[in-house]
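Researcher: Structure for this, please.
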Amino acid sequence: MQPSLIMIGIGFIVLVFVYFVFFYPWQLHWGATRAEVQRPMPGDEIVGRPSLDATRAVTIHASAQNIYPWIVQMGITRGGWHRNGWLENLGEESQESILPEHQDLQAGDLIPVRQDGKPGMWVKYLRKNKWVLWWDRSGDTSWVWEIQPEGNGNARLIARVRTKYKWFSPAVPFNPLTEFFHILMMRKSMLGIKRRAERPL
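Model: Predicted structure, token format:
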């Protein structure tokens, strides 16, 4: 075997090691405390034995009443994903203001992830100023956004995604790549909600 191929192989092994030992645990629980990771959340019952069980959190210096409207209007063709940048929003700009026409979210509504407004997640149930739970209607994916007041006008925004992979799907080899980009996008969304909710009214 040529030395260059050996070096490429060693480099690949090192990258895999670094990913699973350092990056993977970080991305699964970005910003979340051990208690937040371990405690039950709405929708945990939807996906039994998930392949991916990720809990992320951020402290927001704003009340639940100021945070909740930003979550309710999320989605392409709605308020966007609260990320900065045209590419990161899949061609749609995220809104910088509360949109009254997207505040009456109901169980059964679609949260679109594409510009044609068709594929996406569905609202399973929600509780005003508390949490919003999305799911795929097949029981393979759930995604909850929960607001936990901390006092002094602050709150924790906690998001949990649980997904069961289809191991015989052709997409299985791409799951690690999907998870890599998912944490990058989700982190930006949560920080985008934080920035908007903390702005003076």
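Researcher: Any notable elements?
Model: The helical segments are 3-28, 34-38, 64-72, 175-198. Strands lie at 52-60, 110-112, 120-127, 131-135, 141-151, 154-163.
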